[in-house]
Write a structure and sequence with these properties.
about 270 residues, alpha/beta, Metallo-beta-lactamase, Chain A, Rossmann fold, six-stranded mixed sheet, 6 helices, 17 strands, disordered C terminus, binds zinc ion
Length: about 270
């Protein structure tokens, strides 16, 4: 009897699903790619055919241009590819993120992609699927990672913001997913003031809103004065944060990911 899961193969460029002749999240261009979600370490351009949720296809089109070989699969829809029944199930990670559930000869394999089990207002919750083999991502899998409660962290951020209206709170958050999650979590805690954003986040904000995720009043930092941004939250991708860019902000309190992986209010850095 073949060992469990023997019909998928692990390769440096991704997981190969032999009976479907398909690759999951391949890092190289392939004839047939199944893409779990839109982050660039999972979704790349250049494949001949892409199977993904409509949201992920839209994110890929935003980042890589039109995807002529894109085929949308809704959550929980099952399609047959080669000798495999394939279904995408919510992973709770970012808009459109999915686990890939595959069945072949009576055996079920689930490939998680990135996922989280904590509720996120910007995407459907992670759905556990009973299976024979579970291939899991494990970015924060070590027991050392203990993320604090989301609501109390947002409350700390708002407390910091309100304690000095002459300054802004600058949040470093990835353009896809984290930025929109922070915004919706702030809205959920009753913060309805305009939130300022770095230009690199604009298209993804618009994309989220086009899929019905309400983000409230947002403003571009470009052209805004220090006075206008004082007392407000400003969101920018970590890669865009540098002293030169932040000099336009009113004495920002930096909120960034520390080495322990937790987002923490870490205080101000020289920006005057
Ligand atoms: Zn991801």
């Amino acid at each position: 009897m073949a060992r469990l899961g023997s019909w998928i193969e692990s390769h440096p460029e991704g997981i190969y699903v032999r009976p479907a002749d398909a690759w999951i999240d391949p890092s190289q261009p392939k004839d047939r790619a199944w893409v779990t979600h839109g982050h660039s370490d999972h979704a790349r351009g250049g494949h001949n055919a892409v199977l993904a949720t409509p949201e992920t296809l839209a994110i890929m089109a935003t980042r890589y241009g039109p995807q002529p070989g894109g085929q949308a699969i809704a959550y929980d829809e099952t399609i047959r590819v080669g000798d495999v029944d394939v279904r995408f199930v919510p992973a709770g990670h970012v808009l459109g993120s999915a686990q890939i559930v595959m069945e072949h000869k009576g055996e079920r394999i689930v490939v998680s992609g990135d996922y989280k089990r904590r509720p996120d207002p910007t995407c459907p919750c992670f759905v556990p699927v009973p299976c024979d083999v579970f291939v899991t991502e494990a970015t924060f899998g070590l027991p050392v990672f203990r993320h604090p409660d989301t609501g109390s962290e947002i409350d700390r951020l708002l407390h910091r913001l309100h304690s000095d209206p002459s300054r802004c709170v600058l949040v470093g958050a990835y353009a896809l997913g984290k930025a929109q999650r922070i915004i919706t979590e702030l809205r959920g805690r009753g913060h309805h003031d305009p939130i300022y954003f770095h230009g690199a986040i604009e298209r993804l904000n618009q994309l989220y809103e086009s899929f019905g995720i309400a983000l409230g009043k947002l403003r571009h930092t470009g052209g805004a004065t220090k006075q206008e941004m004082a007392g407000h939250v400003v969101i920018a991708p970590p890669g865009a944060l540098n002293d030169r860019w932040s000099r336009r902000l009113p004495d920002p309190v930096w909120v960034i990911r520390s080495t322990s992986s937790k987002s923490r209010i870490v205080g101000s850095r020289g920006s005057r």
